[in-house]
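Sync notes, pocket subgroup
Present: LS, DG
LS reminded everyone that the earlier model was apo-only. Rerun requested with hydroxy diiron-OXO moiety included. Inputs:
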Amino acid sequence: MITHNVANAINEQIQREEYSSRLYLQMATWCEVKGFPGAAAFLYKQAEEERMHMLKFVHYLNDREGETLLKPVQQPPHQFESLKNLFEEVLKHEQYISASINEIYHITLQEKDYTTGNTLQWFINEQIEEESTMRSILDKIRLAGDINSGGLFHIDKELDALAAARPDFGLPIA
Ligand code: OFO
């Protein structure tokens, strides 16, 4: 049986992962209409990955006899100045998610819930990868912007290839 404090922290994280999924879905639609099909494909997949993260927490909470409570999710932003600005927001968001996972880990230590702490290790490692992926995309966009605007076309192609290499979670992707 999971403690109230840990269950509460996980429910809050479920809300954040659901928000992440909606945020990336909204960003994907922006990219799609602004002529960045590769970035759109990448973000559609990222939205599904966030939903998978949310479900991982839901199943974990259920397995530990916690009560999953879906909280209201706020509307994500839908306008961005540029592709660079959009990915700056993505990186900022991932850094926020990393901090929130670390905070839950801290709570599990206080509550002596080493089982949840162990489960959180997967998410801690996942966040290293998420931040690093987003940082390298942003670095390339910055570099392309500094050289020539045609560089963004190539970045978009790279994002398309990156999206194709990712699992599709069995859902249709544009
Ligand atoms: Fe769920 O890792 Fe991104 O937000």
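DG: The chain has one domain: 4-72+80-165.
LS: The chain has a mean pLDDT of 94.
Action: DG to write up.
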